[in-house]
Design goal:
CATH superfamily of the largest domain: Cupredoxins -  blue copper proteins
CATH architecture of the largest domain: Sandwich
CATH class of the largest domain: Mainly Beta
Order of helices and strands: EEEEEEEEEEE
Number of domains: 2
Number of strands: 11
Helix content: under 10%
């Protein structure tokens, strides 16, 4: 049975923040109290722990969310939508590229250099609610 991981109460007078880093990926095992997000609020940057244990099967974002891919590797990469709805173009090590997802849907993507549109190699999926 799937369980949604919901952002906990952040504290008094903090309505929300920007996700700086998602610390898990689909397929990862998750332990209770394991850090899942780094979140920046107007007051501080905080690590958000998991309240559940299990396995990550999907990561969802709300419509209007901007996702940033950060190349922390040693080779160039891209994030190119199979349906051509977004394309970061190729970006070098140390660079970041972003795309904003304004409509709900499931968006499969691949790296132009290390993946294929049919799902082989370096690929991913963005699920927008």
């Amino acid at each position: 049975m799937a369980t949604d991981l919901v952002l906990p109460e952040l504290g008094e007078n903090i309505a929300g923040g920007d996700v700086l880093n998602v610390m898990v990926k689909v397929g990862d095992s998750l332990a209770k109290d394991q850090t899942v997000l780094e979140l920046e609020t107007d007051k501080a940057t905080i690590e958000v722990p998991s309240s559940v244990t299990g396995k990550i099967t999907e990561i969802k974002v709300k419509a209007g969310t901007t996702i940033t891919w950060k190349n922390e590797g040693s080779k160039p990469h891209s994030a190119t939508a199979v349906d051509k709805s977004f394309d970061t173009a190729i970006f070098q090590p140390g660079e970041s590229k972003s795309a904003t997802f304004s409509t709900p849907g499931t968006f499969k993507y691949y790296c132009q250099l290390h993946g294929t549109p049919d799902g082989n190699g370096m690929v991913g999926t963005v699920v927008v609610e």
